[in-house]
Amino acid sequence: MDTNAMKNWDDRGTTAEAIRAGMIDKLVYSVGKDPEHATLQDWSTALGLVVRDHVVDHWFRASHRSHEEKKKRVYYLSMEFLIGRLFNDAIANLQIEPAVQEALSTYGLELRDLLDQESDAALGNGGLGRLAACFLDSMSRLEIPAFGYGIRYEHGLFRQRFHDGWQIEEAEDWLVSGHVWEFERLEARYTIKFGGHISFDGQGNTKWHAEETVFAMAYDTPITGWQGKHVNTLRLWSSRPTEILDLRRFNSGDYLNAAEKMIRAETISRVLYPDDTTPEGKELRLKQEYFFTSASLQDLIRRYLTEHDDIRHLPDFVSIQMNDTHPAIAVAELMRLLTDEHRLSFVDAFDIVQKTLSYTNHTLLPEALERWHVGLFRKVLPRHMQIIEWIDFHHLAEVQSRNLAVSLEDVRIIGHGSEVRMGNLAFIGSKKVNGVSALHTELMKQTVFAEFHRLYPDRIVNETNGITPRRWLYECNPPLRKLLMETIGTDWIANLEKIDAAAAFATDASFKEKFAAAKHANKIRLAGVIEKKLGLRVDPTALFDVQIKRIHEYKRQFLNILETIALYQAIRRSPANDWTPRVKIFGGKAAPGYHVAKQIIKLANDVAKIVNSDPVVGDRLKVAFLPNYNVSLAEVIIPAADLSEQISTAGMEASGTGNMKLALNGALTIGTLDGANVEIGERVGPENIYIFGLTSEDVAEIRVKGYDSRATIEGDPVLSDVLRAIAEGDFSPDDPSRYHDLTDILYNSDYFLVTADFQSYFQRQRDVDHGFRDTSRWTERAILNTANVGWFSSDRTIRGYAADIWNVPSV
Ligand code: GL7
After folding, report:
1. Ligand 1 atom with minimal separation from the 276 CA
2. Do the domain assignments include residue 788?
3. Phi-psi region of 598 (alpha: psi -120 to 50; beta: other; left: phi over 0)
4. Do residues 476 and 639 lie in contact, with contact meaning Cβ atoms separated by under 8 Å?
5. 377 and 258 fall within a common domain
6. Are residues 246 and 289 in the same domain?
7. Do 78 and 11 have their domain in common?
8. Positive or negative, the Cα torsion across 361, 367, 372, 376?
9. Could you tell me the distance, in angstroms and rounded to a whole number, from the CA of residue 314 to the centre of ligand 1?
10. Which EC number(s) are documented for this chain (predicted)?
């Protein structure tokens, strides 16, 4: 291919004039509309195509470079990529916003309106999926040749609506209004097999006679790094039937059954599992995992073989990261490809596997370390079951030969003869296994992987999570971005540690005033969104207290609601006191089958209804639960937050990343010593964070010794009063017993220790009230949060992966 030819067609330029002309061209010849009849959606598509062209120029150059230089590539395998909208991200990274604005003004169009036309690609549940998206951004920023591999779900995470305060789930359809950022790759298609049986011919040939086959077809989305210097690819797989219509059935009039196989094949990439902790819908889920893992491994081996001849050198040029246990089948699938297809011995193949793959653990919750029933596993993946038996047997023999005092049962892949443990498979098949915060990694060593850690003391490493400063400050917070650029320049955008230069201005009167003004502008914007979505007016000078994340008992939104009620009761008792006005802002989805989480949402909405309409309380307290929390909404809420709620039961939140985004945007944290809160606290200093509650050691001890929540409740008049009000139906007059299940949990089985932490949380919140009243000091502390959390850039995280795990250079 003549790459010089490319230089000529990349001369469109990014001037306002070029963009203006390009837009008309795209509008007419690609969208097929004339300007008089074009809708906002049409204009948005036209501009999207213009911007995309520039991305593509950079993309091709990067791909050619990687290919020519035969660079080592990183492959990030993830069931989830919560990328959100891409339009603004591309404009920001290419730094063409002024030219775009100018071009649009000639047509009387507002950039904001066009950006709002884009649907939010919600191909993930929460933190794990968003982390994968931040990592793609950072790998591009650091010019690491990389591919993200995942599933092109036709329907991403469900849309959340409230009906009478209850969560209602609706199918999400991000592809309906067209998605300009992806390219269909008809040629990149692989066959994926399921079921059937295996035959051996006695000459060393193994054949898998599958019962069902589907195609995996690739869709590529370019991921632009800062200033477009490097662009990587997110390749998502869509499932397609290998046989189309059953014409015989169709002709006999049996239309529905004629399409049965097609529908079944397409089901695999139909929906994202809306549950972020427990693997449900077992067989389909297993098929999804194998589907995208197999397609990705086939694809990367094909690419490898276009550049190298000897498959045995794979680990020198390929590093594969398994994001959680979801792609852990990669261990067995890579073995299968290397032995059955590329004819290596099992021993040689396993050596390559262990040098190529690595695994990230994202949670200690035991239900998230996937386990499959041996029967189901053998039915869906018969060859992989054999390979896993081989690995398990040889691993066990090796462990036994080392004569160490480890529990053999704990390090088996096939547990109790009946379950395949994907966490153990991933561990054994990996070069490195990493946790996502210092505390989490330490706890991994002590709990879930304790025996493995004794066997392989060098395998577990820590890579504390991070967030991309491009999306999570530069793009989402224009007022603060502008102030920082005027004051400390632009270095922080690509090197977030440099944001520490802002610390010198924490006590500078003029900077403080501008910092507070930026926050205020963001709060006005959020107040507008709250009013539009909920019909609720909130005072932008009040403390904006934010808890945004999946709804889960361990994240303890319940604790926050109890504190809200306690505050409400206190205000009602003494309305004349000098209260610090607060707006409690919630956002988050509950897994559809998670009954308690859905009740927590309903309770928050019920409390909001009573509190918001109580004239005695007025603006002193408001509660706003914004529906359908997603990346785009986060981009509006985070810049406007004063207080960040990170209140999980200590030891249960592996890291958290919302905590980093909020701190970076100048919110102070109220939180437990859990996950990355610990490291945030170390960096911002104890005076700039509100820590409360039990530590992970306390929690572990209580779990052993037992805990009497009833005694705690009875000894705490504030908490007793709150629970009495809930139980008597003060917030659910239409159904007074609605929350008996919830209150019973606290009295009888308070596993998440809500009651145990209530008092210290309530006290810390009063410290927050007090702190916020000193506006000037609060602003200083907010500035110090922004200035001191530069370390939590995902660029730093990816540098860590590159050096400790992948062994690839980064710029
Ligand atoms: C999670 C953790 O719960 C969260 O603390 C962490 O920040 C995130 C990314 O590492 O991974 N693990 C998990 O299963 N989900 C998460 O968000 C869904």
Report:
1. 18
2. yes
3. alpha
4. yes
5. yes
6. yes
7. no
8. negative
9. 30
10. 2.4.1.1
* pLDDT, tens digit, 9 for 90 and up, residues 442-487: 999 999 999 999 999 999 999 999 999 999 999 999 999 999 999 9
Residue 231 contacts by C-beta under 8 Å, 6 or more apart in sequence? 55, 58, 59, 62, 63, 140, 222, 223, 224, 225
Q: Count how many domains the chain has.
A: 3
Please tell me if the CB atom of residue 127 comes closer than 6 angstroms to any atom of ligand 1: yes
CA distances from 585 to 546, 607, 687 (A): 5, 12, 24
Q: 300 with 391, same domain? A: yes
Ligand 1 pocket member 125 (CB < 6 A): yes
Choice from 436, 649, 680, 797 to test ligand 1 binding pocket (greatest atom count within 8 A of CB): 436
Ligand 1 binding pocket includes 325 (Cβ within 6 Å) = no
* pLDDT of 3 above 90: no
Residues forming a β-bridge with 193? 213
Residue 98 CA to residue 111 CA, distance in Å, equals 10
Q: Report pLDDT digits (tens) over 480-493.
A: 999 999 999 999 99
Ligand 1 and 440: CB distance under 6 A: no
Taking the centre of ligand 1 as the mean of its atom positions, its distance from the CA of residue 785, in whole angstroms, is 23
CA of 809 to the centre of ligand 1 (A): 27
Residue 111 clears pLDDT 60, i.e. is over it? yes
Q: What is the pLDDT of residues 290-349, one digit of tens each?
A: 999 999 999 999 999 999 999 999 999 999 999 999 999 999 999 999 999 999 999 999
Mutate to test the pocket of ligand 1, among 123, 131, 363, 551 (most ligand atoms within 8 A of CB): 363
User: Does ligand 1 lie within 6 Å of residue 129's CB atom?
Assistant: no
Q: Say yes or no to pLDDT of 434 above 70.
A: yes
The CATH number of the domain holding residue 457 is 3.40.50.2000
Pocket of ligand 1 contains residue 654 by CB under 6 Å: yes
Would you give the DSSP letter of residue 467? B
- Ligand 1 mean position, distance from CA 128 (Å): 5
Helix (H, G, I), strand (E, B) or coil at 452: helix
Same domain for 426 and 569, yes or no, is no
Contact 487, 480 (CB under 8 A): no
What is the three-class DSSP state of 324? coil
What range does the domain containing 283 cover? 70-85+120-464+799-806
- Specify if 247 maps to a domain: yes
Q: 490 and 455: one domain?
A: no
User: Using DSSP, how many helices (H) and how many strands (E) does the chain show?
Assistant: 35, 24
Residue 593: what residue type?
G
Q: Does some domain include residue 811?
A: no
Q: Distance between CA atoms of 293 and 370, rounded to whole angstroms? A: 15
Residue 288 domain-assigned (yes or no):
yes
ipTM above 0.85, yes or no: yes
Catalytic positions: 362, 549-550, 555, 657, 661
367 has a pLDDT exceeding 90 = no
Biggest CA pair distance of the chain: 89
- Return the amino acid letter for 526: L
C-alpha 149 – ligand 1 centre gap (Å): 19
User: Do 442 and 476 fall within a single domain?
Assistant: no
- By alpha-carbon position, which residue is closest to atom 11 of ligand 1? 128
Tell me if 382 CB under 6 Å of ligand 1: no
Phi, psi at 467, each rounded to 5°:
-130, 150
Cβ of 369 below 6 Å from ligand 1: no
Q: Are residues 208 and 353 in the same domain?
A: yes
675 within ligand 1 shell (Cβ under 6 A): yes
Ligand 1 pocket residue status of 126, Cβ below 6 Å: yes
**CA–CA distance, 281 with 246 (Å, rounded to integer):** 27
Q: For residue 476, give both structure tokens.
A: 């989402």
Give the pairing of strands 419-421 and 414-415: antiparallel
Nearest CA to ligand 1 atom 9: 128
Question: How much distance in Å is there from the Cα of 126 to the middle of ligand 1?
Answer: 7
Atom of ligand 1 nearest to the CA of 363: 12
Q: Which atom of ligand 1 is nearest to the CA of 130?
A: 9
Residue 659 burial (CB count, 10 A): 31
